[in-house]
Design a protein that fits this description.
Strand content: 15-25%
Structural class: alpha/beta
Bound molecules: S-adenosylmethionine
């Protein structure tokens, strides 16, 4: 035993490790056998030393806990952070009782799966999900431009939005409905994550372009993701789903035009051409009613929208739209505020906007909302 223990004033071990995203391929039988053998250790100090040894082994690429290529026994890929954090908690506990509690929790996490009914998150290993943001403030500093995603469509959202939503609110094989699919960001993510999806887009040429992107995106799970040309305020969602091979949707995502901030087309059915804010809200109400009808009970509807500023007045389009959804019986579960950075063109005008804001007594938009509702 060579490990050096660092004790804090209370006598417990402090061993913070630097967070990594690394995965380790372990031999689960050997790891579990090592952990099980520690259940009967009688002294907390002894337990700590053994746990530190185990920790050292996980960090040692020659350890026999790790699975090597060619090994006959099956290997399991685990998050190194998760394992290190759990081991550090066991070693850092003040009492033997507490150490054993954490030890049993780790064994349970490695041997049993506990998932809810609306996602595939294993709650016995909840610490592993560092990539899932559970805060109501999302500061995303970079858009995910990987694969076929393109930032070229003016008004698309960052792929992290649908991917976060699908991780929390869908299981693999579920159906996602995007009522304003644009360049298909949701469907591309859905295909990557093994979900099925249907998008509705008013502009045929945009639907076609997004269809081409979907074809170029690998479909490793063999799922169905297509865009249908149509008006989301009137389309027969039940029929659209039926043609795709689904009875209902398990998640609805809506990313409408933010009223007239960006004019998407000349079509009168386009929400960005609604004559007034009231008309816009009425159209949104129709989309919510129709698309909401094909959403399963207990499942989620997300609306991504920002506010607007007109004639010297802040128009809280986000909250107005939120009210429309609530009026239709959906339960508000969260309001997420997400930052956005201006496009390169807008960035050049920023100095001017600062001047205007100082002169006009207002603040410059730097955020939008993701409203989350549950259908009860
Ligand atoms: C904010 S964009 C959505 C962008 C999408 N989330 C993406 O990442 O590409 C809104 C889209 O809604 C479409 N749209 C507007 N009115 C519509 C309607 N009545 N039915 C279907 N699509 C509509 C627009 O053509 C535009 O592509």
């Amino acid at each position: 035993m060579t490990a050096k223990l660092v004790l804090n004033s209370g006598g417990a071990l402090k061993l913070p490790h630097a967070a990594t995203k690394q995965k380790v391929r372990v031999n689960p039988r050997k790891l579990l056998a090592s952990l099980e053998s520690l259940k009967n250790v009688e002294a907390v100090q002894h337990l700590r030393e053994n746990i530190l040894d185990l920790r050292g082994e996980l960090l040692d690429s020659h350890s026999n806990l790790l699975a090597f290529t060619g090994e006959i026994e099956p290997a399991e890929e685990l998050s190194l952070d998760y394992l290190l954090e759990e081991l550090e908690q066991i070693a850092g506990a003040f009492t033997l009782e507490r150490s054993r509690y954490y030890l049993n929790r780790l064994i349970k996490g490695l041997t049993t799966v506990k998932t809810g009914s609306i996602n595939d998150i294993n709650l016995n290993r909840w610490k592993e999900y560092r990539d899932i943001n559970t805060d109501s403030l999302w500061i995303l500093d970079r858009r995910d431009n990987s694969g076929v995603h393109s930032a070229q469509y003016w008004g698309n959202f960052v792929p992290q939005i649908p991917s976060q939503l699908m991780k929390r609110y869908t299981k693999q094989g579920d159906w996602v409905l995007d009522t304003f699919s644009g360049m298909g960001t949701t469907l591309i993510e859905s295909q990557r994550m093994g979900r099925n999806g249907v998008g509705i887009e008013l502009q045929a040429h945009i639907a076609e372009q997004s269809g081409q992107l979907l074809e170029a995106e690998p479909n490793l799970y063999g799922v169905y993701n297509r865009v249908v040309v149509g008006d989301s305020t009137r389309i027969d969602y039940r029929q659209v789903l039926k043609e795709a091979g689904a009875k209902s949707a398990q998640l609805v995502i809506m990313h409408p035009p933010y009223f007239d901030i960006i004019k998407f087309s000349e079509d009168a059915a386009d929400l960005s051409n609604a004559p007034t804010v009231e008309d816009f809200l009425e159209m949104m109400g129709q989309v919510v009613e129709r698309a909401g009808a094909v959403l399963d009970r207990g499942r989620y509807l997300a609306v991504v929208i920002g506010d607007k500023f007109t004639k010297g007045e802040w128009v809280p389009l986000g909250f107005m739209t939120m009210n429309e959804v609530q009026k239709r019986g959906f339960q508000l579960k969260s309001i997420i505020v997400k930052n956005f950075e201006h496009t390169a063109a807008k960035r050049n005008q920023q100095e001017l906007w600062k001047y205007r804001a100082l002169l006009g007594g207002f603040y410059i938009f730097k955020h939008e909302y993701i409203f989350l509702f549950k259908k009860s």
